[in-house]
Write the structure tokens for this entry.
Amino acid sequence: MRTKIFLAIFGFVMMAAFSQTARAQLIPVTSCGETLSAAGEYVLINDLNCSSPAGDLTGIRITSNNVVFHLAGHTISSPVCDQNRNVTGIFVVGGISNVKIDGGNVSGFNDGVLLSSSNSLVKAVKVTGACLSGFGVQGANNRLEKNTATGNGDGVLLLSTTGTIVRCNNLSANLRAGVAVSGENTTDNIIEDNIINNNVSVGGFGVVMFNGNNNIVRDNAINHNRNGILIDSPNNRVRDNTVNGSADVGISVSISGTPSIVRLNTVLGSGNVDMTDENSGCGANVWRNNTFVTDLVNGIPNGGMNFGCLR
């Protein structure tokens, strides 16, 4: 019996010692403008309110491979929005990899989180009030998962990135787009299983693909936006999305977006038209097994889901 008690006490002491050692290995982050320049696990231990009267402004900069940065429920904020300056909440520089950011809030700035590294993850971060983008992504093979972006210019801006996955985020009530795909080298990205609602400003979109190809938009709830999905760059795929209640157009493919594939989407209740293709005879686009009511092909009604090239 005494042996059992001794072993239990010994185990408790060892666990406590291990826990203290683990906590000691966390590197504290305490002030605006810090640079995380060595591999390690960092933790924000207080809210940061960052401002600067002139010059570039970065809340936290990450410049090393293999950095983990826990926001730990805290907020990095700034009242500054100045598009003539680089003003960023968390900036992960290019040329590095294996960075993870999680668990807190970024408010204000031009860009909330600017991720230029590769093979990196941003998870469970809420970004609000960034005047350009909530999350800006460059580099390769990055992931945005279970984040929230609301009240920003664009919720997510994919700019010259390849192999990035945007999954299970809430990207709603932004001024321009929930997700904007831009940059000629923005290829082979996946946008899936997101809630992308109420991006309703004039010219606003749930998802818009201005540039890039071989991108996939699938299994998203894209409802009550100004426009649901616009494909304005060729060789992209849109499938299995729900795109209901758009104020203007549900899903559209421009002449510049040809050829692309649109399949198995439900698009209903649009203020202007559910589905539209600017090309005569839909060009080389493939529309199959979509559910919709109203449509236009080259500006002319196509007759509904059982007629013509829009199906």
User: Anything to note?
Assistant: The two ends are 76 Å apart (CA to CA). The domain at 153-311 is CATH 2.160.20.10 (Pectate Lyase C-like). The longest strand covers residues 99-108.
